[in-house]
């Protein structure tokens, strides 16, 4: 029998659920719980044995050895924690033969994979405790941009030194004598206390980062020049990004970035357009793309969007209100709000639809 009739395609199942639960996010939420071994759904038989045997996991999951349960294929296998009901995700023979994904490494048992950042961090992650072996950690050299704590075991980023937050278990990264003599890294500078380093862009941003609050001192900030791409609020003290002006979310403590008269008189930059409220500017590409960017939701107004002409390489969804890239039609991922880009009848015979699990 043809594969498309014997197995539950992920996208087809989404459409099936979507018919009973019209909200697309609710439908997606329901779908990711199908055949996960936990049960709990009332609208569909989510753990039915025959259905789960035929069900094809979404591309970010894979089946356990029982052929029933879908688990996260990136985080669930050989991580030292059983996820599959049949325990196949932690099967010793399977895990010894399996390579860790990029950025991960094997524990000494040759079975469990842990993230490289967890090696010698003073917290045990390997079940065999090999990631915190003292002799190994003392002999280990830190990677570039990292330094050893005084205990000779733990490595931390150089940027974590003298930032007021204790990262070394032995607390040596915040030792007062060391921090007094410490030179901040590039694009950082010392607070007035001469101990703490913070990023330059965090000075005069309206938020106190220095424990002595010197980064937001009024006299200091009035004389401070904002970095490129930022401007001063009307108070002459706080710097905000230009992109935050007139976005309907006040960033300036004095709220001058959302002054109604200023924003209505403001002309949008090239490639942007005003929302119906004449206050907010958004990218032209974001108009009628299915995602609300205008605070007043005018960029997704059905009447406006039905009249909108799609750009070359795009086409309208069935509801005639949203444009999507042609390459996103029948690719196994829902982009249209009405799910019409993955309609089984429309996509029947599409090679991409058939190949997508």
TrEMBL record:
Record's subcellular location: Endomembrane system; Membrane
Organism, as annotated = Mytilus edulis
**One family name in Pfam for this protein:** Ldl_recept_a
Q: Which keywords has UniProt assigned to this entry?
A: Disulfide bond, Membrane, Repeat, Transmembrane, Transmembrane helix
Q: What is this protein called?
A: LRP2
A cellular component term (GO) from this record? plasma membrane
Leader sequence range is: none
Instruction: Provide the GO biological process annotations.
Output: vesicle-mediated transport
Domain of life per record: Eukaryota
Keyword Nucleus appears in the UniProt entry: no
Where the protein is mainly located, per its record? membrane
Taxonomic lineage is: Eukaryota, Metazoa, Spiralia, Lophotrochozoa, Mollusca
Topology relative to the membrane, per the entry? Single-pass membrane protein
């Amino acid at each position: 029998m043809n594969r498309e009739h014997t197995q539950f395609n992920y996208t087809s199942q989404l459409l099936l659920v979507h018919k009973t639960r019209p909200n697309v996010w609710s439908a997606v939420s329901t779908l990711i719980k199908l055949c996960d071994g936990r049960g709990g759904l009332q609208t569909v038989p989510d753990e039915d044995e025959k259905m789960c045997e035929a069900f094809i996991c979404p591309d970010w999951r894979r089946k356990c050895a029982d052929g029933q349960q879908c688990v996260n294929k990136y985080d669930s296998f050989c991580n030292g924690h059983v996820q599959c009901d049949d325990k196949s995700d932690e099967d010793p023979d399977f895990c010894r033969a399996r390579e860790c994904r990029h950025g991960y490494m094997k524990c000494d048992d040759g079975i469990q994979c842990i993230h490289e950042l967890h090696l010698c961090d003073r917290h045990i992650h390997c079940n065999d405790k090999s990631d915190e072996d003292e002799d190994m950690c003392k002999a280990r050299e830190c990677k570039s941009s990292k330094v050893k704590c005084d205990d000779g075991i733990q490595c931390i980023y150089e940027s974590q030194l003298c930032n007021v937050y204790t990262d070394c278990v032995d607390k040596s990264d915040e030792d007062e004598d060391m921090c007094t003599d410490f030179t901040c890294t590039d694009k950082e500078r010392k607070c007035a206390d001469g101990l703490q380093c913070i990023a330059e862009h965090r000075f005069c941003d309206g938020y106190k980062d220095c424990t002595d609050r010197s980064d937001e001192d009024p006299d200091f900030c009035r004389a401070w020049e904002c970095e490129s791409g930022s401007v001063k609020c009307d108070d002459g003290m706080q710097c905000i990004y230009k992109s935050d002006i007139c976005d309907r979310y006040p960033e300036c403590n004095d709220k001058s970035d959302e002054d109604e008269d200023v924003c209505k008189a403001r002309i949008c930059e090239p490639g942007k357009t005003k929302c119906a409220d004449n206050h907010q500017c958004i990218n032209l590409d974001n108009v009628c793309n299915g995602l609300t960017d205008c605070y007043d939701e005018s960029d997704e107004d059905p009447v406006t969007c039905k009249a909108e002409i799609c750009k070359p390489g795009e086409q309208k969804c069935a509801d005639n209100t949203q444009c999507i890239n042609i390459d996103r039609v029948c690719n196994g991922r829902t982009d249209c709000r009405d799910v019409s880009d993955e309609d089984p009848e429309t996509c029947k015979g599409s090679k991409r639809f058939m190949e997508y699990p």
